[in-house]
Every structure is written in structure tokens, then in C-alpha cells.
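Hi team, as promised in this morning's meeting, here are the two structures we talked about. I've kept the exact order from the run log so nobody has to guess. The first one is mostly here for context; it's the second one we should focus on when we meet again. Sequence first, then the predicted C-alpha cells.
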Amino acid sequence: MGVRSFASLAGLLYLVIGIFGFLPGLTHAPPVEAPHLAFERNYSYLFGLFPINFLHNIFHLVIGAWGVLASSSVDASRTFACSIAVLYGMLTLMGLFPGLNTTFGLLPLFGHDVWLHAGTAFVAAYFGFAASSEVKRVRRPGMKSERVKVYEERPQS
């Protein structure tokens, strides 16, 4: 999978998660011991596991739209992946500290969100920083000059 595929799939995934957060059948009321939020509109747990609220769902929709739009080019996809790696790495760390784990009462970043954000950051870091983006233009014998196919290849080690 290339960086463009990552941006497209991550974008679609986060769009779906953002939409799911607004569907009452997929969300459950927060437990009594859940941290208090200053912004409690739509405060619930997606699938009973992931704490979300209205702002969190909007954030997921924005990230999803960005990923889908970024998938149109390798450079935009790489920028998306690098940015998501840094952003979600920061959200992972914030989720580990009281006060920051609710983004000062605005976004819930605790519980299962911590490992989900860490996983997102790790995968995005791979595609943003480690995966090769070398693109070679290959002309196949017998093809007309106006029909050139582009293949994404990784360099041989």
C-alpha cells in the first residue's frame, strides 16, 4: 500500500467514525465514573468503548475529509500522513495526563482513545516518514508516447 492509499483509507475510516458518532444506536451513555467535560453535547461512548462528544465527531469528520482530499497526490498524502503522525502522537500523550486527557473539558481523549490514537500515529508515521515515495515513470515497449503509466515502486535494498 502506498501513501496515497493510506490517506484515502484513513480519510474514509475517520469520516465513517465521525458519522457513527452521531448515530444514537452506536453510542452509549458515559459511565458514572467517566471524567466530567465542560462541553457535554453528545458526550457518549462509541460502541461503548471510545469516549466522544460533538466536537470530537466534528474533528473526526475534518480529519477524514482532509485524508480523502489529500489522497489526490503523493505530496499531499505524505503531508497528511506526517501531520497525522505528529497530531495523533500528541493526542496520545495528552490522553495520559489528567486535565489534558479531556483537552480542558472540550474533547475526551482518555480510555480506549489513547491506544487508538497511538496506533493511528504509528501507522501514519510509517507512511509519512518511513515508506518510500519514489515514483518512476515507466514507458512500456509498444505504448504510444501519450500513454505513459505511472508505477509507485520501492527502491531495492
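And here is the second protein, the one for discussion:
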Amino acid sequence: MRKAGPVNVPLRQAVQPRHKFAMTSLPSIELADEAATAALARRLAPILKAGDVVALRGDLGAGKTSFARALIRALSGADGAEREVPSPTFTLVQSYDTPAGRVHHFDLYRIQSPDELTEIGWDEALADGIVLVEWPERAGNLLPDRRLDVALAFGADGVARRASLQPRTGWTASHPGFAALQPADPGE
């Protein structure tokens, strides 16, 4: 792992909250462009079910909203490709009825405290459908342990991305199709 020096750290990296837990080391998935990011989201969609939480992590502009948009469209079935899926940056949450169940897309970038989550329907969303959450670290202790963390990072050329899917507390056991999403070797 490369250690960041004390100077010349890009602003988006400097303000990114640090994870409070160790990440399990799974191979990264190289994504050539936004279309590849959307393809990964479409591959994840069929294994999701009510009660699932997908925590989307990454710097500003890393592709969290693009990933969520593609995932929601995939969960929406045959008409999903045309579905309007606005970013919840200002509304904080957008909810969608899909054939897979209700999907709630949260963007917590603007919240100041986890206490604000009760005001925007966090508990109800967790009880009633699939939850996609950007900036999940802002949920604090309200973020469920049983979840899938999807970390998106910038690739070398600014267009490419790198994704890391990290199952947490029981995720893999309850999602037998998850293993197929991981590359066979780190270079894949």
C-alpha cells in the first residue's frame, strides 16, 4: 500500500473521510470507462433483494452516482434503460418501485450528523427495500454491518475506474451469486 505524503494531496482526497475499519483484500476490477462501470452494476443487480445495503465509496467524481444510476435502471427491468434517475445530491434520497422491490438511493454528502437520517426515512428504507448509499461513512453507526461496500477509485487515465467489492458480515453467505462478480485473478 502506498503512503500519502504530507503535501500535494489533491483536495478531493484530502477531504475524503477515512474508513473506520479494515478492508478485506479482494481483487480490484478494472473498469475502462463509464460503460464498464454500468456493466458491473448490471451484473450486481440480479443478486440484490429487499434488505440489502450497497455502500458506494469513493472520491468526488469517482462514479458512485453513475454506478447507482445503472444499478437502478437494471433493477427496473425492461423499461429501465429509459428510466430517469436523478442524483439525490440535493433531495438526499430518491426512491423507485422496481420489479426487484423498492429501491432507495441516498446521497449523504450534505448531512451533518447521522441523526438526520431518521428525518429522511433511513429506518423505513432499510426495512422496506434495497438501499444504495453514497458517502456511507456519514451514516456512522446507523450503517448496517451486513452490506456490500463498493469502492470506486480513479484509474490512471482519468476515464478508467477501479472497483473493489467488499462483502461485510454475512453478505457472501446470503448472496451465492456474488462470487461470479469477482475477477478470477487480480489482472482480469
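Starting points for discussion:
Confidence is low (pLDDT under 50) at residues 1-25.
DSSP finds five helices and seven strands in the chain.
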